[in-house]
C-alpha cells in the first residue's frame, strides 16, 4: 500500500470515528434531556408556606463571614438571636402560638442588594428555600452580609434537622433555638 493510499485510509478511519463520537454525544444529550424532564417537580422546587418578612438588614453576627441559620421557637430565643445577629431597631412582634422565627444570613453584592420575595419548604430534604433575587443586573463580586428575619407558620416546619438555602447558594444548617 502506497503512502497516498495509507493517508486516505487513515483519514477515512478518523472521519468514521468522529461521526460515531458525534452520534454518541447526540444520543447522550437526548437521553439526558429526557431524564431531567422526567424528574418530579418536588425535587426542583419548594412548597409555599405561611410566612411574613420581619426584617432584612445588612448585619451578621460578630466573626461570621458566611451563611448562618437559626430558628427561634420562643420570645426569649428571638430576643437573644436579635442581639446575636446584631440587628438594629425595634424587634417586630410575633404571635408565638402560630409562628416561629427563621433568621438566615447570606451574602450579596454591595451594589446589588437581595430583595426577599418568598419562602418555601422542601419537606423531603427539610430545607427552607428563600427566594431573594438581586436588585441589579451588573453587580460587583464583593461580599457583604444580608440577614433575613422571617416569621414562619409553626405547622409548616418539618421535624428533625433543618437546612436553608437562599437562591442557589449552598445549603446551610439551621439550628433550633429555644
Outline the secondary-structure elements.
Elements lengths: L2 H35 L9 E2 L2 E7 L10 E5 L2 H10 L14 E10 L9 E5 L4 E5 L12 E10 L8 E5 L5 E6 L1
Parallel strand pairs: 3-9, 6-8
Antiparallel strand pairs: 1-5, 2-7, 3-4, 4-7, 5-6, 8-9
What can you see in these coordinates?
It contains two helices and nine strands. About 8% of the residues have low confidence. The protein has a nine-stranded mixed beta sheet with strand order 1-5-6-8-9-3-4-7-2, with helices on one face. A hairpin with a 5-residue loop joins strand 8 and strand 9. It is an alpha+beta fold and 178 residues long. The protein has two domains: 37 residues; 135 residues, no CATH class.
Structural class: alpha+beta
Beta-strand proportion:
25-35%
Number of domains: 2
Number of strands: 9
Which strand order do you get reading across the main beta sheet?
Answer: 1-5-6-8-9-3-4-7-2
Give the key terms.
178 residues; alpha+beta; 9-stranded mixed sheet; 25% helix; 31% strand
Quick recap of the structure?
This protein is of the alpha+beta class and 178 residues long. The chain folds into 2 domains: 3-39; 43-177, no CATH class. It has helices spanning 3-37, 75-84; strands at residues 47-48, 51-57, 68-72, 99-108, 118-122, 127-131, 144-153, 162-166, 172-177.
Amino acid at each position: 500500500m502506497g503512502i497516498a493510499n495509507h493517508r486516505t485510509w487513515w483519514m477515512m478511519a478518523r472521519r468514521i470515528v468522529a461521526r460515531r463520537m458525534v452520534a454518541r454525544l447526540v444520543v447522550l444529550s437526548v437521553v439526558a434531556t429526557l431524564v431531567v424532564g422526567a424528574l418530579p417537580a418536588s425535587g426542583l422546587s419548594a412548597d409555599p408556606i405561611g410566612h411574613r418578612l420581619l426584617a432584612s438588614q445588612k448585619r451578621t453576627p460578630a466573626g461570621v463571614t458566611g451563611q448562618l441559620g437559626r430558628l427561634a421557637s420562643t420570645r426569649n430565643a428571638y430576643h437573644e438571636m436579635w442581639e446575636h445577629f446584631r440587628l438594629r431597631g425595634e424587634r417586630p412582634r410575633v404571635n408565638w402560638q402560630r409562628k416561629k422565627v427563621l433568621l438566615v444570613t447570606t451574602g450579596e453584592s454591595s451594589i446589588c442588594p437581595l430583595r426577599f420575595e418568598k419562602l418555601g419548604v422542601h419537606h423531603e430534604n427539610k430545607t427552607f428555600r428563600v427566594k431573594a433575587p438581586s436588585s441589579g443586573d451588573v453587580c460587583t463580586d464583593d461580599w457583604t452580609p444580608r440577614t433575613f428575619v422571617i416569621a414562619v407558620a409553626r405547622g409548616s416546619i418539618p421535624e428533625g434537622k433543618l437546612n436553608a438555602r437562599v437562591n442557589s447558594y449552598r445549603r446551610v444548617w439551621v439550628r433550633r433555638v429555644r
